[in-house]
Design goal:
The chain is α+β, with helices and mostly antiparallel strands and 427 residues long. The protein folds into 4 domains: 90 residues, Rossmann fold (3-Layer(aba) Sandwich); 56 residues, 2-Layer Sandwich (Dna Ligase, domain 1); 128 residues, D-amino Acid Aminotransferase, Chain A, domain 1 (2-Layer Sandwich); 99 residues, Glycinamide Ribonucleotide Synthetase, Chain A, domain 4 (Alpha-Beta Complex). It contains 14 helices and 22 strands. The strands form 6 sheets. It has a 5-stranded parallel beta sheet, with helices on both faces. A hairpin with a 3-residue loop joins strand 13 and strand 14. The structure holds adenosine monophosphate and glycine (GLY). Adenosine monophosphate binds next to strand 7, strand 8, strand 16 and strand 17.
Length: 427
């Protein structure tokens, strides 16, 4: 089978790495891909938003399975376009992708169907939003309605900051139309978890829960990023809480969308807050997470291709379970100096060859390109060094040993990925 992966990040490298192990697959293309992906797939320089060009390419190459990484392509309706041409494609339709592309859509759906989430109000007018924040006390959270590459959510801790944020979003329009409408919601304290499930629109097949680390600096300080590291499993969710999440939140949301005439297929990613032993939805994503995908696919033992096809064909109930390798899987993101604001580029990366020979370690590339035999940095998040271990302590040691083998000028990584789990399990 010929497979096309759309995207260029660490998530797409992990997908290519996993799909390349499937006996069903004969070749893999990736658009546009990156330096690391180019070693296992044919990278073709097509933009993820150029749906016409992607369609032409898929038809020409007779692609039999396409997988969409980034949310923008989903929100632009790539799945609808490929679907009309009969090309099997993994991901939700444009309407389904609204669960991520519009916070108002998602919050209204959750509220209507009684799925737990923070109480909220939505605003189109700056003056109304301003009057609202003058009447409430921080902390609260302001979010742009539309897609802002993970940057449109602000936890507000003092009143002046709130006024500034709504002015930036609604008057200065720093995210254009994405911030023309906003929501303001209650702050929920607790522990965050990423809960991803495959779905064919009827059934769900959950993955192991994982945890991302969004802030740039150790101890969750500094600005939010795309994600600085992730690990799976997590020690904060009991079996009974998982059952509640599966029934009330994940299946509940798929059913609610079905009720609105949307058959949601692909991955539903719940960004959850676990508060007083109860799960609340902070946001939904319509795709695999980055960097959660890296440790998840490193831990997955089952062939992923039959699962992807079963979602597309509406036959997920045929797949009884996903098999996982034992132990803990963890990914530490190495970023360029200046990330997330203004990352440096063009630095030569050393240590990759050595790590290729190490067992239980994979280095998933994000912002890299290969020139000759050398890899150079080409973006903010550069590498996702991923390793396993029997316990949290082993996995953390293995991953940071591997990170210490990598070298490029200005490289930066968090030193505390997995430490929340370590603290809880060893206390
Ligand atoms: P989002 O883009 O909605 O996932 O929000 C980005 C980050 O802001 C989340 O990962 C949380 O750390 C934080 N956040 C968002 N909404 C809330 C909330 N209602 N209560 C507490 N923290 C939140
Ligand atoms: N890990 C956060 C995201 O994929 O949006």
């Amino acid at each position: 089978m010929k497979v096309l992966i759309i995207g260029s990040g660490g998530r797409e490298h992990a997908l290519a790495w996993k799909i390349a192990q499937s006996s069903m697959v004969e070749s893999i293309f990736c658009t546009p891909g990156n330096g690391g992906i180019s070693e296992i797939a044919d990278c073709v320089d097509l933009n993820v938003s150029d749906i016409d060009a992607l369609l032409r390419f898929a038809k020409k190459e007779r692609i039999e399975l396409a997988i969409v990484g980034p949310e923008n392509s989903l929100a632009s309706g790539i799945v609808d376009v490929f679907g009309r041409e009969g090309i099997p494609i993994f991901g939700p339709s444009m309407k389904g992708a609204q669960i991520e592309a519009s916070k108002v859509f998602s919050k209204e759906l959750l509220t209507e169907y009684g799925i737990p989430t923070a109480p909220f109000r939505s605003f189109r007018q700056y003056n109304d939003a301003l009057a609202h924040i003058q009447a409430i006390t921080p902390p609260y959270v302001i979010k742009a309605d539309g897609l802002c590459a993970g940057k449109g959510a602000y936890v507000i801790r003092d009143q002046n900051e709130g006024a500034q944020v709504i002015q930036d979003l609604m008057v200065h329009k720093i995210y254009g139309d994405a911030g023309a409408r906003i929501i303001i919601e209650d702050f929920l304290p607790g522990i965050e978890a990423s809960y991803l499930a495959f779905t064919d629109g009827t059934d769900i097949l959950p993955m192991v829960p994982s945890q991302d680390h969004k802030p740039l600096l150790d101890n969750d300080k500094g600005p939010n990023t795309g994600g600085m590291g992730a690990y799976t499993p997590i020690p904060f969710i009991s079996k009974s809480m998982e059952e509640e999440i599966n029934a009330r939140i994940m299946t509940g949301t798929i059913k609610a969308m079905g009720d609105k005439g949307i058959t949601y297929k692909g991955v539903l990613y719940g960004g959850l807050m676990l508060k007083d032993c109860s799960p609340y939805v902070i946001e939904f994503n319509a795709r695999l997470g980055d960097p959660e995908t890296q440790p998840l696919l490193f831990k997955m033992e089952s062939d992923i291709v039959p699962i992807l096809l079963a979602c597309i064909e509406g036959k997920l109930s045929d797949i009884k379970e996903i098999k996982w390798k034992p132990g803990v899987s963890i990914c530490v993101v190495i970023a360029s100096k200046g990330y997330p604001e203004n990352p440096e580029k063009g630095k030569a990366i050393k240590g990759l060859e050595y790590l290729k020979r190490q067992k239980d370690v994979a280095v998933f590339h994000a912002g890299t390109k290969k020139i000759g035999d050398t890899f150079y940095t080409s973006g903010g998040r550069v590498l996702g060094v991923t390793a396993t271990g029997e316990t949290y302590r082993d996995a953390i040691k293995n991953v940071y040993d591997a990170v210490s083998c990598i070298e490029f000028e200005g490289m930066y990584f968090r030193k505390d990925i997995g430490s929340k789990a370590l603290k809880i399990t060893e206390e």
